[in-house]
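We read letters as residues; the fold follows as tokens. Both lines appear below.
***
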Amino acid sequence: MNDEIIGEATRVGWTAFSEVAGRTRPGERWLVLTHDNPDPDALASAHILAHILRRGFRLKVTAAYGGIVGRAENREMVKSLHLPFSHVRKLNLKKYARFALVDTQPRTGNNQLPPRVVPDVVVDHHPLRPPTTASPFRDVRPAYGATATILAEYLLASGLPPTHATATALIYAIRSETQDFAREYAGPDKAIYDRFFPLANHRLLARIQSPRLPLAYFANLHEALESLEEYDSLIVSHLGRVDQPDIVPEIADLLLRLQGKTWSLVTGVFGERIYLSIRTTNPRAEAGALMHRLLGRRGKGGGHGRIAGGWVDASKVAPGEHRKLQRELALRLVRELKKNPEKGARVELGDWQGRREEPAPAGEPQTPAPRLPQ
């Protein structure tokens, strides 16, 4: 059955991966890094890769992340499944001779890999970045809905039996990344999902999907709804300071459900950065490329066809000037989408009874109804 799921790219890749892992010298340690503020896909991917290196090649491995594990679902995932992650701040990177990146790539500005380090392994489902080509082993598949799907194929190729925790993490990662197969997935994502679903702990999966939410979540949601602006089919919301950056894409997903809207942009301030998230229902969109143009040299970002995220450095921006920069970024997006900036308008929720609800145009992609929060 595994042979039917594992594609030719993974069979060839497993041989190359094994050669790279096999070159590890006695005493050398591996560090597997996610992108900063990891989501379920990054967490599951790092966990699976660390498991393969540790159990399949008997190597010393640490899985780590930068930033914070912010969303309540993600914290519950790490807690309930007892995933062994370390924060990069608590590690001495000089102790590690081998490095791997999952769900991110070198010099993207969203991971803690030292700039001069060329990672031994890179596995990702975002578009290939030029610095990645220097890595001894790389497997980058933009057509896949989740990086964890790629690593799951390698787990099957290794012959190692998956644990219930691994299967549960993988199932939630695929669900979260593809919004229950309503957004950007491929055949392999569904095949891996079906293969591992019976092995997942469904009691823990339910707990992860519906965690208790902090009051800060509702405060951020309230602020987002009170600051809505619309530019034709684009809905925009600017948050002030947030307690965790993951709330920005979370609300961007939610706002895309607004009837008549095919694009959403949410920004928020965390630390010394302004975070941005773009979402769209347009299957032909290139949101990742759009985010690159939007940020220019002021920040870092990327994404897929219908989802993108990024940040700009706001360390030199006066506290009272954050909103001005956020609005400037929003207007750039308005112009990129060829909409008229002068036709922007505040959305007052108190006036909802006076707004005539129109059915979605025929043929317009329907926005999925994800769990709240998703």
